[in-house]
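Q: What would this chain look like folded?
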Amino acid sequence: GAGRGIGRAIALAYAREGARLALAARTLDELEETARQAEALGAPTCVIPLDVTEQAQVEEMVKRTIERFSTLDILVNNAGLAGPVGPLQDNDVAHWTRTIQVNIIGVFLCCRAVLPVMISRDRGKIINLYGGRGRHLSSYGASKVAVADITATLALELEGKNIQVNGLNPGSIYTRMW
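A: My prediction, written as structure tokens:
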């Protein structure tokens, strides 16, 4: 989710701190804009368009990151959809399901893909973003509660492995998504 909004802001904050960035999201032109801004701050970048719900694409992201930078130290799971708005009984099932796939399955696949690298190197950080529960956003709220639980569970599973797993709830931010 590095193409815009919170994801772009996170990427640029890392760029200002001297990080090398593998930028991933669905929309290539937005990723390229984030890369231009990060490179202007001196950060080397790698642009990786992908759908986080596609396991092969997520695994390719990790592979390309390692090829470009020889390491992968931090994963920020920021990709997300707000989902259908309105009373649950009026929600489109396909839209509701897609939100769950991106917001939960995407986090699962990304964490799962980076863990072998982090475990083999005995270091790493995983940051999962989860937001509040908005009124009439049942799929979003449900997915973000799940991400909070995945985060807590993974942190316990990795205890003693020098891999920190944290969740970040930035609250409501005025972005294009909202």
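The helical segments are 5-16, 28-40, 55-69, 93-121, 138-157.
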